[in-house]
Amino acid sequence: MNYTDVCILIPTLNEAATIGDLIKDFKKVGFSNILVIDGNSKDGTAQIAELEGARVVLQTGKGKGQAMIQAFELIESPYVIMVDGDGTYLAKEAPSLLEPILVGKADHVIGNRLEKYSPGAFTKLNLVGNRLINLLFDIAYGVQLRDILSGYRAFTLDSIRELELNKTGFEIETEISVECILKKQLVEEVPITYLPRSEKGETKLNPVKDGIRIGSTIYRLAKVHNPMFYFGIIGFVFIMAGLLTGTYVVIEWLDGTTRIPLSVLTALFIIFGLQMFIFGMLSDLIVTLHRQTVSLIQEKNKQREITNREKIIDGEDGK
Ligand SMILES: Nc1nc2c(ncn2[C@@H]2O[C@H](COP(=O)(O)OP(=O)(O)O)[C@@H](O)[C@H]2O)c(=O)[nH]1
Ligand SMILES: [Mg+2]
């Protein structure tokens, strides 16, 4: 396979400290097809990238997600490697990311940072946040992925074009991971090195604000895939609240005080919570039936295509 078939896609926003070396490193490994999508950096990132021989495109909107979506439209190479421009990932590990795709084991490969990260690469908050987000994701989507937020990934152009992506900010990796699962793509993880950011370049990610956004994206997108999870969480919160107020009501009642308004509230909490579980079960049923219908239609279409093809071949033979 020829490395010119692989587009190295680098989103950048003020990464002048690292972008030059990163492009050089990829070239050393043999990748010459490099696309930098720049968010109108003020520190000369775009100029440095151009000098190093990368194709540079300025993004038309705002946010890493918008940049990626714009770039996916521009790329024509059959394989894409996406990598942060901050020098936290190693170019020499790119071939190991491509490997599962080339042997046909995967459509989308995620570089898993959580197995061999360097000291200082993650802050404590980042590490805990990452683990929590991955746990939430795995429960919501019934998969076993370790690092859905990784910025080092490889995929085929066809597989990324199939995804419906709308998120403009740092939720893009989450949306890509969710869409891969909804589109039943083969997703693999490969352990990679993760280095600390250069002191000169600052992270653009706000761990609290972006963390909450990412968490709520996972939760909201789960509504269609796993409604029992979506409604179950709301139900769980209300039933817990009901049990709490209910315990208080019972304790007070044993002491001789009857709390009527709080008893009513307890009943409402529990009824609402149970209703959410019933909603979840019904939605789950609808989703399952819908999936069965879709797969039946797909199967029928496939059969029809095969019969049509056979008819055409028979016709040609008859001539
Ligand atoms: N084009 C573009 N790139 C961005 C934007 N925000 C962040 N990036 C780049 O996306 C990559 C990931 O961002 P980073 O701050 O490293 O996030 P972190 O790796 O999660 O800390 C880096 O190469 C950033 O320069 C943006 O708004 N537009
Ligand atoms: Mg980064």
Automatic annotation (TrEMBL):
SUPFAM superfamilies tied to this protein: Nucleotide-diphospho-sugar transferases
Transmembrane segments: 228-251, 263-282
UniProt keywords, alphabetically: Membrane, Transferase, Transmembrane, Transmembrane helix
CDD domains in alphabetical order: DPM_DPG-synthase_like (cd04179)
InterPro entries in UniProt: GCTrfase_AglJ, Glyco_trans_2-like, Glycosyltransferase_2, Nucleotide-diphossugar_trans
Keyword Membrane part of the UniProt annotation: yes
GO molecular function: glycosyltransferase activity
Record-annotated Glycosyltransferase 2-like domain positions: 7-155
PANTHER family assigned to the protein according to its UniProt record, in alphabetical order: RFBJ PROTEIN, UNDECAPRENYL-PHOSPHATE 4-DEOXY-4-FORMAMIDO-L-ARABINOSE TRANSFERASE-RELATED
Name assigned to this protein: Glycosyltransferase, putative
Species of provenance: Methanosarcina horonobensis HB-1 = JCM 15518
